[in-house]
């Protein structure tokens, strides 16, 4: 080999999606997903009973119906945009890099992505969990799985994890550009930044030295709450709002998709949207900046379910800013993260 340093590998990892939008495939996906101890962080036996006897059997048919709304001729957007982004990033990085795509749950698996990189004899692996804000249930789980697999290798290459990019200027810029298209066409009364929720205890468990007191600390992002998911969500929202000239009193940060009975981080999106209608807001533009591609949580939950609820509560217009998907600046942003270049 001429190049003594060898190629470097990039492993892009998103959450995962069912193979098909039918009940058996959704059940299989939910089982793998929710049996992850970083997602449902309770003792194994309790988790097993909750997932296998309650959530998977009852939730699977309902979720499958939602997935059918999401599916299009190319399948699940989370997967096909992942494939597009992998191919575009491979073109952008020169031949010194091999880019592989993996999903934390279901397919293509992290094991198959790592295998691809191993076969390419990469000297280093850069793992990019496709979650802008760090959470143990998403980013942490990807790192956990990669380490579980790689620790069995005879030769362990250098590995670098990109743990968050909540304030990356190019990431912010793509969302702002997508939003401008809507803002040029409509005069919105209010803007909503809706993020995937988390059980409160998961944030508190990561709060070293108890610096994170939910609701009190998250507006202020600093080195001690750097990995507080809620604080990062506020940070992303503030940066997008600043970039679009949206004043503080015209936007709200909220959290969606709670599961189970324990408290999740607040405020809750479904409660906020009713409050918006009660306050007389007629036109709302929603952002989903926890997701890099359109998926069930964005297109169906925010774009359809919350839209219906807002209109029923008296609102007149509810639009959703598309995710980063295959935007050229998003590919540029990933390239910079991999090359450790400032955006
Ligand atoms: C921002 C990243 C995500 C975090 C953090 C996260 C935590 C988390 N999720 C659940 C439960 C469910 N999430 C579901 C779908 C889903 N979640 C994310 C991302 C994060 N989840 C995405 C991108 C998706 C959509 C995937 C797709 O195929 O489009 C689902 C399945 C759908 C449903 O039945 O509603 C569940 C369940 C928990 C419990 C949790 C943290 C504790
Ligand atoms: Fe989720
Ligand atoms: Fe916090």
Automatic annotation (TrEMBL):
InterPro entries recorded:
Ferrochelatase, Ferrochelatase_C, Ferrochelatase_N
Keyword S-adenosyl-L-methionine applies: no
Cytoplasm as a keyword of this entry, yes or no, is yes
- Cross-referenced Pfam families, in alphabetical order? Ferrochelatase
Among PANTHER family, the record links this protein to:
FERROCHELATASE, FERROCHELATASE, MITOCHONDRIAL
Q: What is the role of this chain?
A: Catalyzes the ferrous insertion into protoporphyrin IX.
Task: Name the domain of life this protein comes from.
Answer: Bacteria
Provenance organism: Imperialibacter roseus
Q: What are the protein's UniProt keywords?
A: Cytoplasm, Heme biosynthesis, Iron, Lyase, Metal-binding, Porphyrin biosynthesis
Q: Which family does it belong to?
A: Belongs to the ferrochelatase family.
What is this protein's name? Ferrochelatase
Pathway it acts in? Porphyrin-containing compound metabolism; protoheme biosynthesis; protoheme from protoporphyrin-IX: step 1/1
User: Under which EC number(s) is this enzyme classified?
Assistant: 4.98.1.1
User: Where in the cell is the protein located?
Assistant: Cytoplasm
**Location (main, coarse):** cytoplasm
Q: Which reaction does it catalyse?
A: Fe-coproporphyrin III + 2 H(+) = coproporphyrin III + Fe(2+); heme b + 2 H(+) = protoporphyrin IX + Fe(2+)
> Where is Fe(2+) bound in this sequence?
196, 297
């Amino acid at each position: 080999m001429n190049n003594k340093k060898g190629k470097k590998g990039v492993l892009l990892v998103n959450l995962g999606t069912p193979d098909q939008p039918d009940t058996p495939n959704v059940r299989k996906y939910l089982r793998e997903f929710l049996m992850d101890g970083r997602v449902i962080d309770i003792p194994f036996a309790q988790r097993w009973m909750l997932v296998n006897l309650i959530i998977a059997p009852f939730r699977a048919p309902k979720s499958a119906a939602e997935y059918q709304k999401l599916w299009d001729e190319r399948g699940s957007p989370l997967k096909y945009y992942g494939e597009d982004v992998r191919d575009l990033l491979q073109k952008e990085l020169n031949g010194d890099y091999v880019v592989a795509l993996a999903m934390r749950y279901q397919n293509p698996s992290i094991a198959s992505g790592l295998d691809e990189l191993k076969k390419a004899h990469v000297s280093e692996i850069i793992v990019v969990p496709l979650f802008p804000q760090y959470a143990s249930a998403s980013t942490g789980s990807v790192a956990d799985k990669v380490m579980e697999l790689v620790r069995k290798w005879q030769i362990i290459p250098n590995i670098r994890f990109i743990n968050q990019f909540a304030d990356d200027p190019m990431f912010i810029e793509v969302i702002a550009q997508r939003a401008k298209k809507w803002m040029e066409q409509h005069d919105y009364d209010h803007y909503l930044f809706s993020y995937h929720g988390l059980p409160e205890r998961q944030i508190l468990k990561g709060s070293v030295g108890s610096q994170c007191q939910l609701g009190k600390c998250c507006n202020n992002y600093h080195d001690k709450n750097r990995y507080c998911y809620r604080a990062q969500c506020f940070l992303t929202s503030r940066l997008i709002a600043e970039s679009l000239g949206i004043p503080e009193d015209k936007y709200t940060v909220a959290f969606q998709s709670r599961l189970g009975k324990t408290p999740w981080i607040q405020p809750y999106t479904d409660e906020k949207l009713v409050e918006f209608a009660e306050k007389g807001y007629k036109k709302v533009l929603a952002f989903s900046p926890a997701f890099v591609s359109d998926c069930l949580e964005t297109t169906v939950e925010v774009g359809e379910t919350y839209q219906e609820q807002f209109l029923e509560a008296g609102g007149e217009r509810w639009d959703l800013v598309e995710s980063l998907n295959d935007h050229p600046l998003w590919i540029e942003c990933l390239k910079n993260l991999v090359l450790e270049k400032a955006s």
